[in-house]
Amino acid sequence: MKKLSLLLFLGIFAFSFDVSAQTTSTITAVTDTVAAKAYVGKYKVKEGPFEELIISIQNGKLFGEAVGQGSAELAPTKEADIFEVMGYDGKIEFVRNDAKVVVKAKLSIQGNVIESEKQP
Q1: What distance separates the 2 farthest-apart alpha carbons in the chain?
Q2: How far apart are CA 27 and CA 66, in angstroms?
Q3: Which of 13, 80, 93, 114 has the maximal Cβ count within 10 Å?
Q4: 3-class DSSP state for residue 3?
Q5: Beta bridge partners of 95
Q6: Is the pLDDT of residue 50 over 90?
Q7: DSSP, res 100
Q8: Do the beta carbons of residue 54 and residue 64 sit within 8 Å?
Q9: For the whole model, what pTM was predicted?
Q10: Residue 37, φ and ψ in degrees, nearest 5
Q11: DSSP state of 20
């Protein structure tokens, strides 16, 4: 009876470990996608309180940094290419050209729209 209990316990442990390992890798794959990498880069601001916007991926999450102003996580919304600027009550929209390449970013924050162009 002890052997049967031990085998049952080991079987449950092995199954739960395998499921948790699969779940973790799936979450990482979803947050660090090829699609998110399309936004990464430096954007030159046309007119605004800062000169450059830097978009990066840190620990599998998308971040935006207004140089000299701070940075924030960019959380996806239901709309394609639009992200919420966490903690700042703002949104950023990435604009694509006819070839579907991200070429601009429009940051809407505190009632202002700050436009920027992606640098090569």
Answers
A1: 76
A2: 28
A3: 114
A4: helix
A5: 104
A6: yes
A7: S
A8: yes
A9: 0.72
A10: -65, -20
A11: H
